[in-house]
Amino acid sequence: MTATTQPEDNISETAAVILTRESDQENRIQEKEFNKEHEHEQEEQEHQDELLVLQQLQITATGTTTNSSVQDQLTQAKLLYQQDKLSQVAKILKSIDSKYLTQDHRHMLLRAQEAEDLVKALKARPLANTNANSTTTTDNNDNDISTHDKGGDAGETKGDWIDQGVSSGTGGKFPTRILHRLERSKTDHHKFRLRARCETPIEKHLLEPLLSVLNETELYETWLPSFRIPKFQIRQCKKLKQCSRVSQVLWVVMDLPWPVTPREIVLSAAAFDSIEDDGHIGIQLKTIDEKEEDVVIPTSSSNEQGGGGDGNDNRVRVDLDGGFLFEKCPRDHPAMKEFQKNRNGNNGEDGKVNDEEQEEEECILVTFAAVMDPHMKLLPQSFLNFLVKTALGTAWRMLLSIAQDVKDGKRPDHAKAIEQKRQEVYDYVRERVDVMLSNMKGDRMCNV
User: Fold this and answer.
1) For residue 147, pLDDT beyond 80
2) Helix extents (H) in 238-391
3) pLDDT tens digit string along 110-129?
4) 3-class DSSP state of 200
5) 179-205 pLDDT tens trace
6) Following DSSP, what letter does each residue of 79-115 receive, concatenated?
């Protein structure tokens, strides 16, 4: 048997491979040492930066407040902001020298101010024209495009509201007061905004399910009403972003009667919690540009439900601002008489509430108000009447009816969604509702 020898070329190649591996290994060791040294330098620099910040915070900001306490306050404000307690956030940030506020802090203050303005508008008492058939319009100053009414000293908004009175709708539930007005520009009478308002007292136990129905935006399409004559429906409602526990960015597409093209809204729905300070909670609705929240608007297709292949180019972006407020219902609210009548009828009473039922006498007032610029040159009176007398009232009572169904366990889709988010969202919602109702009870006992 003849022994074979390995060719010199193969030996050279093997040696080269071994040398290459050793070189690669040495390079990796050096790279690791370099990265370790670089990381140490980064940590040292970060430590120096922290020391510099701490040194700056030790300088006195005001005559009585040190910068270390300022940092504590800013941290507290951030935590409260994450809990949507905007009124408390504003109190803290306004007490701090503005040179310590970042852009994020100024955004918090802006949100708090917007929520405060909304609450003032929703708490104000509209001065109304009781003639529901009136077609009066209000001139609107182009320079005053605020989404909220300015309340006077007596807490009353300017007049020219059209009051439709209190109606319970089919079934006699949920007595509701609906008001509206059309505001025309003083300089361009083809430009106008439609402002509407709904006010309904509800039982306390309905608040939590109502909040859950409002929060489950992805289920809106399962219950929002649609109309064929005239054509009016929410074709699509999608959540584009979850901003916090209960704050979202929504995209809504509405179909309107021919020849009006579909309208779309990009809407921020942000909660605010002022239970400890003012005894209420609310939701602010605000039209935004998608760039503000870095969201992507879905594209339309011809096979969308209710669509006609309109595509993105034919949709008109509209503006809608307003919100909801949930608070203890005043005894003199116009709908309270009908509310008590319905309650007493359900309890077999005759207009009286005894001492044992006194606790149940308190109720929640739900107020919704919004102003919308539909970007239309002409709004026929017949369609305006349909919007404010039929569509708005129907959708509002449907919302309250769905909340009642959720409470009664008749909405399995909502029950599933609530259970999936219970630990993250709805346990907290229940906790805050319980605090609100407890405070209401405490207020009542203090007034006895």
Assistant:
1) no
2) 275-278, 290-293, 336-346, 381-386
3) 999 999 999 999 999 887 76
4) strand
5) 999 887 777 666 788 999 999 999 999
6) HHHHTT-HHHHHHHHHTS-GGG--HHHHHHHHHHHHH
- Residue 85 CA to residue 78 CA, distance in Å, equals 10
Amino acid identity at 72:
D
Picking from 156, 119, 86, the residue whose alpha carbon sits closest to that of residue 325 is 119
Q: One-letter amino acid identity for 447?
A: N
Query: For 22-64, what is each residue's pLDDT tens digit?
Result: 655 665 565 555 555 555 555 565 555 444 444 444 433 343 4
Which whole-number Å values give the CA distances from 82 to 79, 108, 279, 285, 398, in the listed order? 5, 10, 19, 18, 31
- Residue 291 CA to residue 338 CA, distance in Å, equals 46
Q: How confident is the model at residue 313 (pLDDT cuts 50, 70, 90)?
A: low
Q: Which two tokens stand for residue 235?
A: 């074709």
Encoding tokens for residue 282?
């609310």
* Amino acid 252: pLDDT: 92
Per-residue tokens: 227: 């109309």
C-alpha torsion 381→387→388→390, nearest 10: 110
What is the average pLDDT across 355-362?
Answer: 52
Q: How many angstroms separate the CA atoms of 377 and 368, rounded?
A: 26
Which pTM was predicted? 0.76
State the amino acid at position 408 in one-letter form: D
CA 336 to chain centre: 27
For residues 265 and 286, give the distance between their C-alpha atoms in angstroms, rounded to a whole number: 10
Structure tokens given for 439: 């405070």
d(CA 352, CA 354): 6
At residue 200, what are phi and psi to the nearest 5 degrees? Answer: -140, 125
